[in-house]
Amino acid sequence: MRLLTWNVQWFRGLDGAVDVKRVIAHARALIDFDLLCLQEVSDNYPDLPGCDGANQALAVADALPEFAVHFAAAVDEVASDGRSRRRFGNLIASRYPLAWVREHALPWPHDAQTAQHPSMPRVALEALVLAPTGPLRVLTTHLEYYNASQRLAQAQAIARIVQEGAAAARYPPAADEPGSPFAAKPHSPHAIVCGDMNDAPGSATWHALRAAGLRDAWSIAHPGQAAPPTFRLHERTLEESPIACDWIFVSETLAPHVLAVKTDSETTLSDHQPVWIELNLG
After folding, report:
1. b/e string for 183-203 if b means 16 or more Cβ within 10 A?
2. pLDDT of residue 235
């Protein structure tokens, strides 16, 4: 099974062009993915640089007709016309059927530091994937950039979500009538958490996910080797140094099945680099 994660910066390359199709085509050229997790997908934001205001989640679905595509808005606000909505968030596209999808609003605590920088709400999108070898949970997110306390609170919330999912697999609820909201639903101890965490390996954010029993997939595939930068590698208008902030974590149950984890350090189709994982689940 192959999963690719990428913060696509509303599909805007460093050449300033916004093009959903070329980003999806490049991702497919990197690896024949079964699951695609994207961050910074926009809908009705014509004021973003290069954007025409199109619903980019629908454009992804058009580019991947054989995939189920689900979008979760972190920001969901009323546009200036007072009627339409503007949305910005994360997306999961799956070649495999999905049993259920959940959108988790992440904590957005405010303190004195909040007033010093811009900020926006964040969301985690979780799906129960019915892979041929059995169900597993996939969660993708995009954590706070400026405020470290917000980012840590969000990582801790994701850790709780992962732990709750594992507990549901151990102690599933009693079955109810089919067709009812209480009807039995599949659960799984296997989990993948991926996305733009806006922090470095070994940080408090990283340790918060490790505390949930998750393993850094790059460290599994490349023991003792530092992960390559995935942000500010080519786009250097910000003063900070390049950072490896786009991560893939796996549950302990999946750790023995990690075959490869790779990063495309060459592409400039976003201000982030794509990262992908291959697992042998046979």
Report:
1. eeebbbbbbbbbbbbbbbbeb
2. 83
d(CA 60, CA 38): 10
Q: What is the pLDDT of residue 173?
A: 87
Q: Tell which residue, 232, 217, 221, has the closest CA to residue 265.
A: 232
Cα 219 to its chain centre, rounded Å, is 19
pTM of the model: 0.96
**Whether pLDDT at 238 is above 80:** no
Q: What are phi and psi of 128, to 5 degrees?
A: -95, 110
Residue that has been written with the tokens 């102690």 in this structure: 171
Helices and strands counted in the chain (H then E) = 5, 12
Spatial CA neighbour of 38 closest among 70, 75, 79: 70
Lookup: tokens for 99: 């049993």
Longest dimension (CA), the chain: 58
Beta bridge partners of 263: 275
CA distance linking residue 7 with residue 142, whole number of Å: 8
Q: Express each pLDDT in 96-105 by its tens digit.
A: 999 999 999 9
Contacts with 47 (C-beta within 8 Å, 6 or more apart), sequence order: none
Q: Which helix (H) or strand (E) holds 105?
A: strand 98-105
